[in-house]
Amino acid sequence: MAVPVILDCDPGHDDAFNIMLAAAHPAIELLAITTVAGNQTLEKTTLNARRVCTVAGIEGVPIGAGRDRPLHGTASVAVGIHGESGLDGPGFGEPTVPLDPRDGVTLIRDTLLAHPVPVTLAPTGPLTNVAALLLGHPRLAERIERIVLMGGSTGRGNTTPAAEFNIVCDPEAADIVFSSGLPVTMMGLNASHQVLATADVIARIDALGTPLSRLCTELLTFFAAAYREVFGFTAPPLHDPLTVAHIIDPQLVGLVSASVAVELTGTHTRGATVVDLDGVTGRPANAQVGMDVNVAAFWDLIVEAVRTLGGHGRS
């Protein structure tokens, strides 16, 4: 039976591939897509979700625009990585996939209430929408099967030395999610930096020879240049699809149980995920943390998703 999933995202190049993977694979029942400010402003991430669904031929999945700023403070964006549009690289026409009239949090609420079994949430941006749902509708926690998120790290960050982008954009929201008592699986930088879109990977996708594969090649080429310039990476890590890939194949990523605390007040460490891998704090585990990744199996899933969605391309 396919796993019912709601994607909560901030597209973003890696989010685009996560949307395609969730829509293409028969193990996933993609119920809804909600957007949040993160890699770009809410207006742009929402437009990008509609763009991706349009070019990939993904129809019938409602898209709702969520929160445009963190629970506290102001939003920040990742222009240096994802560009002014949030999906720089290819050219996109006007999307034909519509925007749902409900806001993102309401769309999640309604979807949880309507579905006959508990639903898995896969957030791959700042956790503002999920935290707002838990704050505003605490009884709906029982309708959530688990939360599989991309964010955090067992080691260094990528936005500050200590903090990863998704978490530092809204640490209070992340703290609410990790403290919720719900089953949480964290795919952090320590895992996602293993799945690099090398030249060989990009060549595999390009060799599919479809309009969609060419667009994906252009996305990854821009993403690679940005990571090379900003971080000195030889190839860019495709962070977000680790969430859906793990839901599809639970053996793809090795997990360890650990206590994860979100630093809220540190002068140099705000937004850090403090992962107690050795149990030194004595705190009970509140998360499963991704560690070792079957990289070949991951890329097989991504390439097959682009192949499955096939002949779609620019609108």
TrEMBL record:
Keywords: Glycosidase, Hydrolase. The keyword Hydrolase applies. Pfam families: IU_nuc_hydro (PF01156). GO terms for molecular function: hydrolase activity. This is Nucleoside hydrolase. SUPFAM superfamilies: Nucleoside hydrolase (SSF53590). The lineage of its organism: Bacteria, Bacillati, Actinomycetota, Actinomycetes, Kitasatosporales. The keyword Cell cycle does not apply. Residues 5-300 form the Inosine/uridine-preferring nucleoside hydrolase domain.
